[in-house]
Amino acid sequence: MSSYNCSICLSGFDEEEKPYRLPCSHIFHKPCATDWVLNKKTCPCCRKELKGNIDEILTYDHLVLSLLLELQINNKANNNNNNNNNNNNNNNINNN
């Protein structure tokens, strides 16, 4: 699991499931955060008390989505490179 997932549902973010930010800067999917905040009135990660209506509490920032998608792409590329290196190392061991 990537650290770039919603901490409530554990799914990743994309163009359809955008990240929304709480005042404490933790990010979640809007439906996940809405359900949580309406029931608990705190952040799921840091437990900071949240006051106000949901539209004041949750904010969408397209830059957060862009950054997350870029990090996910870079992370995937790094994982692929590591897997290729591991496969090459295993092949070298098996050939010796």
UniProtKB/TrEMBL annotation:
Keyword terms: Metal-binding, Zinc, Zinc-finger
GO MF term set: zinc ion binding
SUPFAM superfamilies: RING/U-box
Source domain of life: Eukaryota
Transmembrane intervals: none
Region of interest (Disordered), residue spans: 77-96
Residue ranges annotated for the RING-type domain, each copy included: 6-47
PANTHER family: RING ZINC FINGER-CONTAINING PROTEIN, SI:CH211-59O9.10
Protein known as: RING-type domain-containing protein
